[in-house]
Design brief:
eight-stranded antiparallel β-sheet; mainly beta; Immunoglobulin-like; 22 strands; disordered N terminus; 2 domains
Amino acid sequence: MGNLLLTITVLITVFSLNGQSYFSFPKDTANWNCLYWHQWHPDFYDLTNYQYIQQGDTIIKGKNYLKIFYNETDSPSPSHFIGGIREDSLKQIFFFPTSIHLNTIGGHSFPNDTAEHLLYSFNNLQVGDTLAINTNYTDIIVESIDSVLLGTTFRKRYEIQNVRFLFGPEYWIEGIGSTKDLLSPFTYEFEWRYYTLCYTDSTTYYINSPNGEDSCHYQVPMSINDLEISKKFKVFPNPTSEYITIHSEVNLKKINIYNSFGQLLIHENATKPEIKINVQNLNSGIYIVELINSKGRIYTKIIKE
């Protein structure tokens, strides 16, 4: 009886998966909010929130594409166009890059920038399939197939093994793409990791935050000051009501101040060993100061009275 019930359960699951409607990639605007996590040293973190923005369309070599822009959300720099994306009738998603090496976090490289490249395939995938994507550099294999509930509907989800370049687990979800990075087949992980924090379009909202929080923006860790800030940096006075002074014995590049929601409020380029920053316009509360140099980043708290 037990074996019969197990067989029936498996058959119901298979029929359910096969009977699901396919969800195509978005045809208009969409956002993939992502996180790049790189820990250079116990006291130095590189946490970069970034996003891919799908907006507008273009024609490249006679084919219609939706434009993809890249933006680092905590940076004052504007977003920039990195390529076009399209889906064909065979449930294949293609990307046409603007250059071989895209100006993105971590690095995304393509064999050439004169043709489109297969980014995903959702065409009748089976467990064990090796997909013909970036074949000269890696093997992309379907490990398992299940479903994930988004709103009131289920979508197929594929566990993917990128043999050479990405550390698991990675999942591809119909209509969304990778839980790591939109362009995951053409990047790699080493001392860093990628996360698709959330995905939004006109009808879909999907959360995949690494810390389980319902947020499209990874907040700077509030407890990181417990590691004790390096003696090479001093931030004073603390608490403060008007100004803070940042003294560094090593060359700083940038100074950022965030609120407790991870929103960037103050951005300064560091041009000398001691920097004075006006915080009078900040509301009373706790803020995170991010100090950036060539080796990484360190964080500490300040209290604005």
